Description:
Layout: H1 3-31, H2 35-59, H3 65-93, H4 97-125, E1 135-137, E2 144-146, H5 176-181
Antiparallel strand pairs: 1-2
Bound molecules: fe (ii) ion (2 copies).
Amino acid sequence: MSKSLENLKNAFASKPQANRRYIAFAGKAEEESLPQVARLFRAAAESESIHALNHIRIMGEVKTTIDNLNAALSGETYEFRTMYPEYLNVAKKEGNQQVAWSFDVADKVEQIHAGLFSKAIETLKTGKKLDSVDYYICSICGNTVEGQAPEKCPICGPQNKVLQGNLRITVGQRPILKLCHSNSRGNNRQPQVALRNSHSGGRGFKSRPAYKTPF
Length: 215
Ligand code: FE2
Ligand code: FE2
């Protein structure tokens, strides 16, 4: 790999982080009644996304849609089968419940993403197109639901509000930190629940979330 390509990959890896960091910062600026600073952060976040898109296109990693779906499925599968379970174990060993919560819900949502990508691949293989449906994203845990939103998010807990809305409602329009803080439970408290539901391959999120939302 040439040094330029290596640099491009490194730059690409950092851009989504900058994007999300600025979105988080924008939410905080809004909480502090600094709307113009929030706009500045959102503008910079959008710009970082454009840089990331330039980088990935030049890297040649945008291929045909079936290739892209397979790449997405492979990445999601690695995350929910290997990466997040390992990270979660470390967080549990270190007793860091907030980190454990974040890894735990991400792990469960990546499994859902993998399922959705897999279903899309199977549909395209038959020569059909996907049905036109909405996707609902939970503003707390990122749960991604196709078709109709359930009353409450089954991953991050019955205490949380209904899923945020369909894809036309973006995080950019409704700052995620503000939504998290609108949760009726106490803000910024340490989660009260011990790590009693050990993470297993069984994915028990349909019955009860393993951790309380730490926001
Ligand atoms: Fe994912
Ligand atoms: Fe959720």
